[in-house]
Description:
With 191 residues, this protein is mostly helical. Helix content is 44%, strand content 0%.
Amino acid sequence: FTGSDWSEFLQVHPGFEEKCDWSKLDAFDFCELLREQPQFSSYCNFVKFRGYHWRRLLVKQPQFENLSYGWENMLYGMDWKILLVNQPQFARYCIWRRLDGIDWSELLIRQPQFAEHCFWYKIKYPCCWIQLLSKHPQFAEHCQYWDSFDEKDWKALLEVQPQLAVYRNSSNSAPDQAERDAECRKKRKRS
Length: 191
């Protein structure tokens, strides 16, 4: 048996652990095994785990969060997105700056409560904004890319969120941004 063979076999037949040659299992094999049979963690050398392995394991078995291998420093933006979509309680560990614009839009679609951590400027692609605003129009004020939307983008967005038509041809400004800017200039002149 290879390590992968053992991993697959023990996922289905955990009673054969005594027969297993544990040295044949690599990090991926252990990750897949522990996702289904976490009781075998004492055989695992977690030092070999990388971000991908931690993310896959924690999505399915969050109780492994307390292992002190610095797993949170190994995760990339996509790993964080996938983990937080499935296990939002891990937000307290998240290194938010690692998420790119695609990660942010996909995360916020499913877990909008993380908006307070968002680096909005990273969401640059119209397709990301269309998907996000279609589900959560309350984030429209953060979009700085209205001019990048083509007719197809606007059609897709306005079919589900017609109230966002006020942003069309807005030169990246919220509908009342010009009024706020003018008011601000008036206040500055008075002082």
